[in-house]
User: Fold this.
Amino acid sequence: MLAALVSKTRVLEIVGDMIRVEATGCALGDLAAVQNVDGTTSTARVTGLERSIATLQVFTGGKGISTNARVSFLGHPFEVTFSNNILGRIFRGSGEPIDGKPDLSGDPKIGVAGPTVNPMQRVLASRMIETEVPMIDLFNCLVESQKIPIFSVAGEPFNPLLARIGFQADADIVVFGGMGLIFDDYHFFRTQFEEHGIFHRTVMFVNQASDPIVERTLVPDMALAVAEKFAVEQDKRVLVLLTDMTAYADAMKEIGVAQERIPATRGYMGDLYTQLAQRYEKACDFKGAGSVTILAVTTMPGDDVTHPVPDNTGYITEGQFYLHDGVLDPFGSLSRLKQHVIGKVTREDHSQIMTTMIRFYASSKEAAQKQAMAFELSEFDHKLIKYGGLFKTRFMDIDVSMPLEDALDLCWQTLAECFDPEELLMKQELVDKYFPKKTAAAKAATAETSGE
Assistant:
């Protein structure tokens, strides 16, 4: 490492966790070693350059650093360990293992925060990632190489949902990046991955709430760097789970304020869109190789979708899953790539079932409003209200888990329990093929007995 040092200089100014030094020959993102007067050494990262003055963020914080400290630039950006040995391992935001397992310092390292993929090497999304979450698989499919957030608010069970998708999704490798997690959340994810038998093919990068802010900004870069490497070099289908990207944006805001940069909307820096896009655009189906799919939690302060973080995220990503009141909202959720797989790699009735189920659920909401306002309800209104209750219980509850084929069959069963075949307004060949015959016969017998 000493051979890589490009210059040494003293500290000019200390502002919180930021230090400023006079330096030449260093680049934005380069690492530096801060040698304190007490003999200890801290790692720092160049976060700003202005003429001959470099601004560095110290990983362990500015406490204990004096202006007499010596700064040595290492001549390379931040790197993360990459080999098959990182599977089943947990790393902190600085890239160091925190699971007590063998040291990996001798394993190869790769740079993080590299450029996005050449569009000529990208393949059009055409394969589905089945999650066994009905509201995703049925109505807003997760497609390989997709970048999509879970929009939610604090207090919603977005972390349990993210963990479920992680251990149920049909991906080869799961890369988890946690930013600003409390210990309970970190322990929850680790326990869930272990208990469901996917920990051996999972890599975890965790920044806890008590860890340095600068490490929070490195977590997505490390997670995406190793995910891209697995996809390109080992042809793996990699699912990247990130939580919470709002904590990531807040960390960037805090660093920007410490650098005395002029803020934009609500205190966030003007390059927020660029910083988010550079990470999300790592999602890719590589030509002749594997794929990287990104599913990231984005919390909305005050349930405000116009907040800068979700607002900018919506312009970058290909839809969103909207989680509120403990359910995935079928109206607020959207997958812009689902048309690439529905009815093409899924069953022929998928498209018709999807639109019919949502159409009846929207009508059931209107019937429920009429009931609440004491309007007289028709026989069909009562059918809609019954259907709405079944739809919420069988499909919208995020604890419900079932394969896509079973979910499609349950859709037909639910429709048969509430409506007659001619009320569905679906293609007749699909009704003839999939509508449960026994249920239809039973309904006819009941109607005849009652004299209808």
User: Anything to note?
Assistant: The first strand starts at residue 7 and ends at 15. The mean pLDDT is 90. The chain has three domains: 2-76, 80-340, 350-449. Residues 137 and 333 are 12 Å apart (CA to CA).
